[in-house]
Design a protein that fits this description.
The chain has helices at residues 21-32, 66-77, 86-93, 95-104, 122-125, 149-154, 207-220, 253-265, 288-292; strands spanning 6-11, 36-41, 58-62, 82-83, 112-114, 130-134, 144-146, 162-166, 173-180, 183-190, 201-203, 224-232, 235-243. By secondary structure, it is α+β, with helices and mostly antiparallel strands. The N and C termini lie far apart (56 Å). Residues 277-294 have low confidence and may be disordered.
Length: 294
C-alpha cells in the first residue's frame, strides 16, 4: 500500500455550526477509501500569511469567503493542488468576469452592464427591468430588482462594484443544476430569498440543459460546480455560476462528490484552465434576443 493521501477541505462557517450532510457522507466515504481528511475554516484560524505553506496533497475549496479565496491563492502560488483550481474559483466568484466569459462562449445569458454610477442605467431600466448584484455576492445577498428609473434613483450608492443584469421573466421556480465532472443533475424549487436552504425536488436534465451546464464548466475550468437558470418559453438562461455548491436535493450527493474527488486526486479527472480572456471572441457572444431568435 502506498502513502496515505492527505486532503484538506477549506470550509465556510455554518449557522448553526452543523456539518453539511453531503460533506459528512463524502468525508466518511473518502476516509474508508484510505484518504486522510482534515478541515479548517479560515475565519476561525490565526495564520501567518508569509509562513503559509502547502501541507496536504490536495486542497478542496468549499467556501466562497474572500479570506478563504485569498488563502487558496497563496497555496496555489506555491504549487498546491486545489479542487476546483484557484484560477477557476477566482474567475467564477467574480460575476462581472463570468458575465463576459459566458457570453463570449455562446452560452445563453442575460445582457449585463457595469458602472460605478447607477444614474447611468436610467435609460436602460426604462426599457427593461434590471437585477443589481454585488460582483462577489453569494446566496442572493445584496441583490435588488429595479423596474423603473424612479426605483433606481432611490438606491443608495453601493460600497462594492455591482453587476446590472437584465431581469428575465421566467417560471415561479428556480432551476438549480449541479455538476460533478460529466455528471449533471437538476432540481426545482419555489423561488424565495431563502431558497438556497431548501433541497428542492430532482427533475429531468434535458439535452439542452446538459449541454449548457458542461459548456459552463469548460469555459470556467470547473469540475464541481452549480448553475442557476431561468426558464421561459424562449429557452433557459444562465444567471449565476458557483463553484462547489451544496448539491441539495441531488440523490446520493455525498457519494457523487466523494467519487469525483477520488478520481481527481488519482489524476483521472483533468480540468482545463479558465478560458483565456485574451482569446474571448465577442463575435461568438449570444444575447438573450439573439438566442431566442434561433
Amino acid at each position: 500500500m502506498g502513502p496515505i493521501m492527505r486532503i484538506h477541505f477549506l470550509l465556510v462557517r455554518r449557522v448553526p455550526p452543523v456539518m453539511s450532510p453531503v460533506l459528512a457522507e463524502a468525508f466518511d466515504l473518502l476516509g474508508r477509501r484510505g484518504f486522510e481528511i482534515t478541515t479548517g475554516i479560515a475565519e476561525e484560524i490565526l495564520q501567518r500569511s508569509d509562513l503559509l505553506r502547502p501541507e496536504h496533497d490536495l486542497y478542496v475549496l468549499k467556501s466562497h469567503t474572500e479570506l478563504s479565496l485569498s488563502v487558496a491563492g497563496i497555496l496555489h502560488a506555491q504549487g498546491a493542488t486545489l479542487l476546483n483550481p484557484y484560477p477557476a474559483c477566482a474567475a467564477a466568484q467574480n460575476k462581472i468576469l463570468v458575465s463576459r466569459v459566458l457570453r463570449a462562449n455562446g452560452i445563453p445569458a442575460p445582457d449585463c452592464w457595469i458602472t460605478g454610477d447607477f444614474t447611468l442605467l436610467a435609460a436602460i431600466v426604462r426599457q427593461r427591468p434590471l437585477i443589481l448584484k454585488p460582483y462577489m455576492g453569494h446566496r442572493g445577498q445584496g441583490i435588488s430588482i429595479v423596474r423603473s428609473a424612479a426605483e433606481l434613483l432611490r438606491l443608495a450608492e453601493p460600497g462594492v462594484p455591482m453587476l446590472a443584469q437584465e431581469h428575465i421573466d421566467g417560471s415561479a421556480e428556480d432551476l438549480k443544476v449541479y455538476v460533478a465532472g460529466d455528471e449533471v443533475f437538476a432540481v426545482r424549487k419555489p423561488f424565495s430569498s431563502m431558497s438556497f436552504t431548501a433541497p428542492g425536488r430532482p427533475c429531468k436534465v434535458t439535452p439542452e440543459i446538459r449541454d449548457i451546464a458542461l459548456r459552463c464548466g469548460r469555459a470556467l475550468g470547473l469540475g464541481l460546480y452549480g448553475l442557476d437558470l431561468i426558464e421561459n418559453s424562449q429557452g433557459a438562461w444562465v444567471v449565476d455560476v458557483n463553484y462547489f455548491p451544496g448539491y441539495k436535493g441531488v440523490p446520493d450527493a455525498g457519494a457523487l462528490v466523494a467519487r469525483y474527488i477520488e478520481q481527481y486526486a488519482a489524476g483521472e479527472s483533468l480540468l482545463a484552465a479558465p478560458y483565456p480572456l485574451s482569446q474571448l471572441n465577442p463575435i461568438g457572444a449570444t444575447t438573450v434576443r439573439e438566442w431566442s431568435a434561433r
